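Researcher: I'd like a candidate sequence for this fold, 92 residues long. If you have to choose between options at a position, lean toward the conservative one.
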């Protein structure tokens, strides 16, 4: 079942109450927040009402909060090749 992946890109500060209400109905409160909604004409209409503020893509599966957090985790920047205790053992 396909889903809309909706991310709030621009802030709704200073916009009419109707627009902020649509964002609340979609579940978007903060910038760069991402929500998943099943593809339906009702959700598509809500997205069209705020199309200037959001980025939308269609994905096959919705991601959980833990999966979204894992995608944002940066690379450590280093890799451990050998454990420290083996690196300092005397060679015979």
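Model: Candidate sequence:
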């Amino acid at each position: 079942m396909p889903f809309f992946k909706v991310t709030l890109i621009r802030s709704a500060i200073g916009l009419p109450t109707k627009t902020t209400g649509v964002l609340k109905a979609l579940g978007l409160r903060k910038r760069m927040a991402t929500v998943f909604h099943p593809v339906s004409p009702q959700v598509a209409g809500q997205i069209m009402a705020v199309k200037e503020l959001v980025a939308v893509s269609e994905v096959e599966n919705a991601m959980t909060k833990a999966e979204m957090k894992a995608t944002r985790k940066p690379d450590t920047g280093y890799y451990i090749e050998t454990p420290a205790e083996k690196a300092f053992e005397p060679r015979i």
